Amino acid sequence: MLGILLLLVTFPLSAKAQTNGNLTLGSSLTADDRNSSWLSPSGEFAFGFREMGRGAHLLAIWFEKIEDKTIVWSANGDNLAPEGSKVQLTANGRLVLTDPNGTELWSPSPTVAGVAYAVMLDTGNFVLVNQNYVNLWGTFSQPTDTILPTQQLDLGTKVNARYSETNYSAGRFHFMLGDDGNLAFYATPNPWDPSDAYWVSNTVGSGFQLMFNQSGQVYLTARNGTILKNAQSERAILEFNGVFRQYVHRKTANSSSGWAMAWSMVSSPVPPNICTSITQNIGSGACGFNSYCALGDDQRPRCLCPPGYSLLDSTNEMSGCRQDFVPQSCDGSRPETDQFTFQDILNTNWPLSDYERSTAQTEGSCREACLADCFCAVAIFGGGTCWKKKIPLSNGRVVPSDVGKALIKVRIENSTLTSTGNGQKKNKNSTLVIIGSVLLSSSVFLNFLLLLISYLIYRSFRSREYKSSQRVQVNQVTGMQTFTYQELQEATDGFREELGRGSFGAVYKGVLGSGDTNFVAVKVLATRTGESEKDFEREVSAIGQTNHKSLVQLLGYCNEGQHQLLVYEFMSNGTLADFLFGASRPSWYRRIEIVCGVARGLSYLHDDCTRHIIHCDIKPQNILLDGSLTAKILDFGLAKLLMANQTRTTTGVRGTRGYLAPEWFRNMPISSKVDVYSFGILLVELICCRKNYELEAKTEAQIVLIDWVYDCYHEGSVLQLVESDEEASSDVKRVKRFVMTALWCIQEDPALRPTMKKITQMLEGAVEVPVPPDPSSLFSST
């Protein structure tokens, strides 16, 4: 078993890395030295850098003496450190992680003072200690996803699951010992209310500490020390799938360096079956949208895709699924009922996704009803009842006791011939059949001529297939996929289906490879932006290195002569503008998710990229929605990039009138605060579900939205902004918080505007929003 370290043993510093002893002020580790780490006295645990991918490093603590070096704590999972980064115990006693340019990536929060030295303990706790040998801070007080023997969690302490098995950024799930004494597990990072919990200890008023003692017992205690719940283990982890498990890893009897066996589970997981424990009215459930959860023989949940669907993120089965076929057309003149069929899954359901139910049905009539309904993606049939469900599907699970059957509607193989209005390529087999028919009924000469044409068409198709099967070309300088202009011209069928157009160019729908499901969006830049080819590629490279779930992914580019094109992932639900200002109003809670996602994406661009990026054109048209209605920021590839040590720049006016900050018109250097201003306008549009400027508003006072928003706030009547929105009206505290945050964003003085990181905290309720000053003086500036 792991023991408690009673005495701190001092060892001298090595030239390479501090090991097995106290770390004096000034000690440091560098991410490009793979053999350096700070070890605990017995060598059981190590603190240092773990390489998570090419040039990306995680500051972590791990078991040093086992083969797989299991990680038990990490600092910067959401912001991996590039090669050459450094963690240092500075001369003034701060433990800080910085990138090669000296930009701070992580440090303990809150900051502690009076640190004399640090030490990696044999318990797995890395601590900062003062001259009186008192621990001022330790990793045990800020756990990530794992707790260890001798660790205790006090009221208010949160444990977060990671994103996936190999991705240590924050995931969906967490558990917390609340201030009320209840230990609760949640399926969302920031639950709206306690009812979102999918497992609770039911110890309200009595729970006080979650203890993990030296003997390997995990138990919840009352304030008087009484044990309320207990188990036994040597490592307890909230896994990325939301299940809390406890493991043991025994040493051999005659070996001090190896371990006898792999980790084995020693107690029942919590909850026993997460597939059926989570049912979310708002959210995807235990697994991602359009997938379903099945409990394996090892009691682990598996997230599976229905027939005809595949994972959105192949590295994370929790990410949800997307359709691998073109959805059924809703064109009434072309119902396509002959081009779809059903595949069955027994004992499977997606509760809460119903939009229509009919009784006294047979399985055959249920199939026919779903087939005739273009919105129906899945039908559930059982007990004479037929439930229709549409995309996205949520709360999917397999329940062996459920007698129902899921009927999954999929396109019949090779039935992809659709009208040109949908922008789909005609089936090549159909073309050859037509040519063959003509050959049989024509003269010998015409037959010969058409045979020659058929051969040329065949060679053309084979050439395309050969090109699509070749390995993707990767530019060695940028690390990005490169395409020829001809490849993208063919991928878009001659730039036929336009998705949108802006000041920088037009965007077209395309498909890569020989399949009909790997859709992309190809942006054709209208004019060269003045950069040389190397400058353009360098900027694309910087954008390509961004990695955040709230940014549209740049897949590659073309830089050929006068042709500059960008290839993005395809976002099936279009722009936020279409979604927000359409005929039907999106739900309040969906708007909350969207605005918080956009805020997190901007915060990442401003503060967490290797090169800080100012977007310069934040507006609903540049926010896209994927198949799960997750919002992602587009067009940051044309933004103004800053050097690592640069906070301002000068540039010509970029962006869209109505969203532009005042400094654009005053010949002032611009900073990331121009994005903050634009985000403020976007925020009030999301609150009120209307455009910033509407001549057809009900009253003259409502024409300019930000004028009206401030008037309503000043008069204490913010509910007027959402008077026809029942969901928002019942959430008045959040509405007021969002309005106050927006008013801070649109301050005339850029210095008064908060950073996007602070704004994200305001929106999520992590910090209190102070009373904003009167911003009315800026309204005439734009």
Mean pLDDT level: 78
Oligomer: single chain
CATH class category name of one domain: Mainly Alpha
Output the radius of gyration. Answer: 29 Å
Structural class: alpha+beta
Question: Strand order, biggest sheet?
Answer: 37-41-42-40-39-38
Fraction in helix: 10-25%
Distance between the termini: 67 Å
Q: Could you give a short account of the major beta sheet?
A: 6 strands, mixed
CATH superfamily of one domain: Transferase(Phosphotransferase) domain 1
What amount of the residues lies in strands? 25-35%
What is shown here, in short?
The protein is α+β, with helices and mostly antiparallel strands and 782 residues long. β26 and β27 (301-304) form a beta hairpin. The N and C termini lie far apart (67 Å).
Summarize the structure in words:
The chain is α+β, with helices and mostly antiparallel strands. Among the domains are: 142 residues, Orthogonal Prism (Agglutinin, subunit A); 50 residues, no CATH class; 89 residues, Phosphorylase Kinase, domain 1, CATH 3.30.200; 206 residues, Transferase(Phosphotransferase) domain 1 (Transferase(Phosphotransferase), domain 1). 19% of the residues lie in helices and 26% in strands. It contains 13 helices and 48 strands. Helix 3 packs antiparallel against helix 4 and helix 8 packs antiparallel against helix 9. The N terminus and C terminus are likely disordered.
